[in-house]
## 1
Amino acid sequence: MTALGIALLLAGAALVIAEAHVPGGVLGVAGGIALIFGGIFVIAALGGGAALAIPVGIGIGAVAGGGALYVAHKGRVAGLTRVRSGAEGLCGQVGTVRRWAEPSGQVFVDGALWRARHDWPVPGEDALHEGDRVIVERVSGLTLCVRRADEWEVTA
C-alpha cells in the first residue's frame, strides 16, 4: 500500500507540474486527486489511521489544486493581456502627424518619430495634414501603417 501511495504522490506531482505548462485545469484536478489518495494511502500504510490520513490527504490535494488553479489563471490572464512593448505594442496607439506628403510621412507615436504610410485612403477624404491624429493599424519593419483617427478614438 505504501508503494501505491508513493506512486500516486509522484504521479500527482507530475500532473500538477504538467498543468503549469499546459493550462486547462484537467491535469491539475487529476494531480490534486492523485495527491489526495497518495497521501491517504501512505499515511494509512504507516499506521496513521483514517482519522489522520483523510484530513492530511485533503489538505495536500487542496494546496496542490489551488496552486494549479492559480497557475492556470495566471496563464489565461497573460494570454489576454495586451502587448505593451515592441512593434506589436504600437498597434492601436494614437499618434500625431508631423509631416505628410501623400501617401507617406512622419508621425509621432509613443514618444518617438516614425515613418508612416496611409495604405487605404478613404475616397472623398482629405489627405492627412500636420497635426492630424492617426491610429496605428500595423507595423511593417520600421514603417507604421496608419489611418485617420475618428473623433471618438482620441477623446478619452
Note: The two ends are 65 Å apart (CA to CA).
## 2
Amino acid sequence: MRIVSLLPSATEIAYALGLGDDLDGVTDGCDFPSAARTKPVVSRSRLALDNGTSAADVDGAVREAVKDGEPLYALDAELIQRIQPDLILTQDLCRVCAVPTGQVTDALDVLGCHAEVLSLDPHSVDDVLDDIVRVGERTGRATEARRVVDNLRSRMAEVEHRVRGLLPVRTFPLEWLEPPFSGGHWVPDLIERAGGEPVLCAPGAHSVALHWPDIEAAAPEVVVFMPCGYDLAAAAQEAKGLGAVAELRATPAWRDGRVWVTDATSYFSRPGPRLVDGLDLLAWIMHPDVVSEPPPGRVTRVQT
C-alpha cells in the first residue's frame, strides 16, 4: 500500500502500526521517528519562519495569511502524482497545523488521483485512540492498532490509579505566549486524567485567546507552558518572556515555583501515541510524590 501522510501525528501513528515501509510521502514537519525524515516531502509550510521568530511574529504571519485567504501549506502536486498513493492521511482540526482535507481533495481532483482520503479530527484522548484504530482498519493493521491502543489505555489507567483520590491541582495549560492561548481539545482531558482541574479551558473545547488579567484572576496553582509546535529548547527560549508578565507573576503558580516548560511538539501538540507520555509529564508535575520523574529533556521548571 502506498500511503501519504500530511500531518506529523498521522506519521507517528503509521510507524506505531508498522507501516513505515508503506509511507511514500510526508510533510516537512514529520520528524518522529527519525526514519520519517528520510521520506519524500510532499507538503511544506508557506510561512517564512526561523528559530528566531517570536511568538507574536508567528501569530501575525498566520493571521495575515488567513485574512488574505492564503493556504498555509504548499502541496507538491507533481510528487503526489508520481507516488500515486492509495491512501492519504490528513485532517480538518486546524488549518495552521497541517493541510486541511478540502485543499487535498481539490488537488487530487486536478491531478486525477483517486486515492482514498482519511481525515483525522480528534478532540479528546479517546478520539485520538479511535483514530489509531481507524488508520489500522484502513491499512490492514487492525490487530496491531488494537494492540497499540490497549497498551496506551493500560498506561493511562496506571496513571489515573496513582492520582485517584488526590486533591485536583488547578492547572493552566499555556499554549501560546503572544497573545496568550489556553490549551484545547485533548489537553484539558489529559489534565483531568493526570489529577488536575483544567483552568480556563475544558475537555474537547477549542484553544482560545485570552487576556493576561483573566489568567491572573483564575489564580492557577500550576502553569504548564506548551507552545504549539515548539520542542523543549525552543519553548525554554520563548519562556524567558514569561517573567515580564506582571499578571502571571501574581499567580500562585509563579509564587510557588510551579511554572513548567515542556516539549510541546512531542507530547501535547500532536494527537498521536505520545500523548500518553504527555499524561505522564502532567501527572508528575502536579503530583510528584506519587508519579515517577520523567526522563530528561521533556520538561523543565521556569525560574521564578
Note: Residues 94-98 have pLDDT under 50 and may be disordered.
## 3
Amino acid sequence: METDRGRNDKVRCAVIDTNVLMYIFLEKIDVFGQLKDLGFRRFFVPSMVVEELKRLEVSLTGKERRAARFALNLVEQMCEVVDVDAAGTDVALLDLAKSSGCVLITNDKRLKKRAAEMGITVGYIREMCRVDVEE
C-alpha cells in the first residue's frame, strides 16, 4: 500500500456501497469530504455497484432516480471502479475490502456484521449526518 507523502502513515482507502452513494444525494451528506477529513485518500467501488446503480437509474422514479444518476456521476469523478469476480454485490464489496485492506463504508446492517466477522473495518453513516469508522 502507498504512503501519504505528507505523513508517514499508510494511505487509507475505502470501498463504498451503493446505499452510501445514494444517501449522499438523498440526505445531502458530504461523505467523501468527511472521509477525506478522516485521512482517506482512495475510494473504490466494485463494478457490480456501478451495474446496480445503472439498474436503479432505469427502474426508480423521481428523487431516487436522480440519486442513482448523481451516484453514477460521483463514482466516475471520485472512485476507482474495480472488476471483482464474485457471486453478488455484497460478496464483491467484502472481497474487495478484504483483499485491498480498505475500510468498507456501508449502512447495510447484515453486510456490516459479515464484514466484522471477516475482520474488515467498517464505516457507516451515523444519524444520517456523519461518517463513523469502527476502529
Note: The mean pLDDT is 92.
